[in-house]
Amino acid sequence: MSIIKLNKTPSKPSIIMAKTKSVYTCQSCGFKSPKWLGKCPDCNQWNSLVEEIAFEERRGLQVFEGDYSPQPITTLEAREDDRLKTGIQELDRVLGGGIVLGSATLIGGDPGIGKSTLLLQAVARLANNGIKVLYVSGEESPKQTKIRGERLGVTSENLFIYAENTMERILDSVKRLKPNVLVIDSIQTMYTQTLESSPGSVSQVRETSSQLIFNAKAIDMPIFLVGHVTKDGSIAGPRVLEHMVDTVLYFEGERGHHFRILRAVKNRYGSIMEIGVFEMRDKGLAEVINPSELFLAERPQNASGSVVVSSLEGTRPILVEIQSLVCPTIFGIPKRTVVGIDYNRVALLTAVLEKKGGLNIQNHDIFLKVTGGIRLEEPAIDLGIIASLASNFLDKPVPPKTIVFGEVGLTGEVRGISQAEPRINEAEKLGFDRCILPKDNLSKIKNVGANGSSPLQLVGVTSVKEMMDVLF
């Protein structure tokens, strides 16, 4: 039996590919998990874990020249007036008086609300004053930014436009150009080549932000970071981003209204209670110096359910109109629709009005809103809400020149509020002749009006029932 030998051609050595490892990272808090989870165990967010390629972080941090040695606090020089004034009073007020050198400011808001428009107008005024500004756009080309700048009337040789997403190139441009102010629009479009994840991921946002903030503080260069927001209104990316920056601003407003509210939720160099009011026009954002007059410009006269309240935003009292509509419900469950005020607060005050005011209002549909698109959160508007609901339910209008403010407790008592004098002075400027306020505040008022007294008729009340007897 013959044996047939087969000549085997030696095969080429096979290339064994390294298995790519992946990790699931929470896009809200940065928590990492080797497998997918429906709910993040750290921040309790659902469907926030996204698969990313696992990598070893290689930090190639560029460091600008600066003095990093420890120094006694007594040798450091810092003055409160060392701020850059943008020339936009509403923006400077929210920032605490201007831009602090070396500060990092994060501004967020809904798409199309006006974030880029506001920053372009602000840096254009800085550039006109001889301050060199670098505007880095990761979403628009230089020509597109130029078209938007022409509409806003932005013309200055000190304003430099740079369309780039790579952090290494941006830092090189900053090192060569040496601008006084840097704008990044937006931080979610930036990425560094030292990481393998895609732009907008938690790792990229955290790394690029840390590089920008670290180098900006080294050379005392203020930076502005534009941040995208998620569907729930919070800034996209890791929560640590808001801790890294010095100031966090939110640009608020509704698409149907032309008013925009700039509000600070964090500010290391000023108060977080200040707001800036802007009006969207065809040539950009125009600041509103007297928002109370603008909010009350189209107020109906002698209409039931219309009440003017005073809300204190920072150091500025703002007079706004609250409107309500109360009608019998057709179905078994009454409907509640609230715009501009917390829903639970309105439900609480409705129960107080029925129990302590003697009005059978719980089986009625209630619709309540704040005109102008502004949102009110201060307790001083409680009395105005009750007055508005009672006015429409009884179909008795509140006198048009009457202003109402005060906090209401669960037992129907009217509690005193802070800063009553500025509220009364603002009402006096706009021509109001009567003010319903807590009796506790009435006994403490001293400096009201030009001569220490006000021409307004000040009526102090201690309960909801007493307020209704005065108005109705």
What does this protein look like?
This protein has 472 residues and is of the alpha/beta class. The chain folds into three domains: 22-53; 83-289, P-loop containing nucleotide triphosphate hydrolases (Rossmann fold, 3-Layer(aba) Sandwich), CATH 3.40.50; 294-471, Ribosomal Protein S5, domain 2. It is 25% helix and 25% strand. The chain is built from twelve helices and 23 strands. The protein has a nine-stranded mixed β-sheet, with helices on both faces. A seven-stranded mixed β-sheet has the order 17-18-16-15-19-22-23. Strand 17, helix 8 and strand 18 (364-370) form a beta-alpha-beta unit. Helix 8 (343-357) crosses helix 9 (382-394) and helix 9 (382-394) crosses helix 12 (464-471). The radius of gyration is 29 Å and the shape is globular.
What is the structure about, briefly put?
With 472 residues, the protein is of the alpha/beta class. The chain is built from 12 helices and 23 strands.
The low-pLDDT segments are 6-19
Distance between the termini: 122 Å
Task: Please identify the top-level CATH class of the largest domain.
Answer: Alpha Beta
- Number of separate domains: 3
Number of helices: 12
Largest sheet: 9 strands, mixed
Rounded mean pLDDT is 85
* Secondary-structure class: alpha/beta
Dominant shape: globular
CATH architecture of the largest domain: 3-Layer(aba) Sandwich
CATH fold group of the largest domain: Rossmann fold
Radius of gyration: 29 Å
Strand order of the largest sheet: 8-7-9-10-6-11-12-13-14
SS elements, strand count: 23
